[in-house]
Amino acid sequence: MPKKGRTPDAPKNMKKIFSRLFSYYKDYKPRLVLAIFCAIFSSAASVVGTLFLRELIDTYIEPIIKNAPGAPTIADFGLAVLGVAAMYVVGAVSTFVLNKTMLYMSTRILHKIRTELFVNLQKLPIKYFDTHTHGELMSRFTNDVDALREMLSSSISQIFTTTLSVIAVFVSMLVLSWQLTILVVLMLVLVMFLIGKIGGNSGKYFKKQQEEIGKVNGYIEEMIEGQKVVKVFCHEDTVKSEFDKINENLCDAATKANTFANILMPVMGNLSHVHYAVTAVVGGIMAINGMLTLGTVATFVQLTKSFFMPITQISQQFNNILIAMAGAERIFNTIDEQPETDDGYVTLVNAKIAPDGTITESEKRTGIWAWKHPHGDGTLTYTKLEGNVEFDDVYFGYEENKTVLNGITLWAKEGQKIAFVGSTGAGKTTITNLINRFYDVPDGKIRYDGININKIKKADLRRSLSMVLQDTHLFTGTVMDNIRYGKLDATDEECINAAKLANAHSFIKHLPMGYDTLLTADGANLSQGQRQLISIARAAVADPPVLILDEATSSIDTRTEALIEKGMDSLMEGRTVFVIAHRLSTVRNSHAIMVLEHGKIIERGNHDELIAQKGKYYQLYTGMFELS
Predict the structure, then answer these.
(1) Residues 466 and 564 in one domain
(2) What is the 3-state secondary structure (H, E, C) of 533-580?
(3) How far apart are CA 93 and CA 496, in angstroms?
(4) What is the β-pairing status of strands 465-468 and 546-550?
(5) Nearest residue to 428 (alpha-carbon basis) of 400, 458, 408, 453
(6) What is the mean pLDDT of each run of 10 residues along the chain (628 residues)?
(7) Do both 368 and 405 map to the same domain?
(8) Is 4 within a domain?
């Protein structure tokens, strides 16, 4: 989001954005042609109706009043009026079809843009979400898309039809009287000058208003998510004060934007009245002198009103277009963000093992998985998925020139439980993020079953892993749906068994609808511990060979933790497990414990070995008991 107080810039390349935006119309060419013809008919009907005023006065009314020889009859007059009425009906129908067609095309185009935006967000790396706020991303789907909707459904068609009307009216005035048209041109110069001054300021503040709306929405979303924290620390007044500042910025931008926008119409209206009066006086003098007919003067005066008001409307629509273009630029920038790269070519396949140990691929699920590894010479090798993980002198940093991990070397064999302990910021979670390839390492290697993980397709790599995070997230749906999220084709029985394994079954069956209980608002109708148990069951149903537990029991009380430890032991049996825990009691039975400090492993060994060393782990462990 732009910094506070900064006036947002106009789109950098309007032509490129327009070109890309209108490329979406290629799927609706017949409708687009229909809309263009309807706009032409609508504009023509309006001008023809005004021009009929000259015919009405000069050909019908004046001769009838003077009883001139050969004057038309009332019947002739009625037929002429019916003809003009028919033209107006055609114009009205054309306008209706135009609006309906533009609305259809705009909704379908916005549907496609929203889809592209959402799909690309799913492809972006975790780093992108670390550097962009939720409110900022949400504003793409709300403020920016809504601005596009206004432009595509209304502004474009209005600008096109009013431009056609202005051109038709100007040509008509030029034909009627070139002398009076000179007055129109002189007034037009003044009008364009005022539009440039007033409209320029209006457009600037409308863009700023759009940015400030994004800030307000982002702040509101953040405060709603953190409402409990706000209340716990009694920061309601502070939050309100901060919101008042942000809201005041929005109010200021909106006031200035609408002030300039609202000034424009009265100014243009009064100028058109002045010009109307001047034109009427000059035209009257010319009519008295026989230079023009009375019908021509009346028609010309009427056309002047039809000339200046559309110009004002076009200038106002340009504000909407600038806002929409700024929004489109942000949307397209997000769509064009570089997706998460994946150069892997090793895939995970169902396998079967012959009595002689030969591994072959199977089309059916066998419960045995293998890495399918194609080689440069065209051969294929299959490596059984066992869950052996090795870090070889790995360096990593989220930012350049600022490393978080420094020379990490470790290995985990199949079925081993590896624990990471250390202070906050030591790099424990970063190690698990690298195993998942949420981030790629610039230096060093990580091997999975002897294969460099950079060679493994990310989707296949992550399919072989399962994580239980400290911050649980449950989706809107039933308890069963949330457990099945770990394995979408899991049966109800498998989900229930996973819940029993995580010791979640006992509380789930006491919910109002059991496993069919609907969870909303990230599981707000459950306790934090219950949400954590469901997330553990979700990991269990995936049945992965490698399990990552990042503070998985942090939200569970000591009694509940003791209850699920047996289930967790069953879950971890035969799997490679990485555990991050602040409660050192949960890592005592680990095969190896890594003590991290400032991104380095300073101690390693099992519980007894580390206690005997009386180093950092000993201090942490004994300190824990002193505190308890």
Answers:
(1) yes
(2) HHHHHHHHHHCCCEEEEECCCCCCCHHHHHHHHHHHHHHHCCCEEEEE
(3) 61
(4) parallel
(5) 408
(6) 39 80 90 90 82 79 75 79 84 90 91 92 86 79 86 83 84 86 84 71 70 78 75 80 88 80 72 81 87 85 78 70 83 90 90 88 85 90 90 89 89 87 84 88 91 92 84 86 89 92 88 90 79 86 85 65 63 80 75 89 90 87 52
(7) no
(8) no
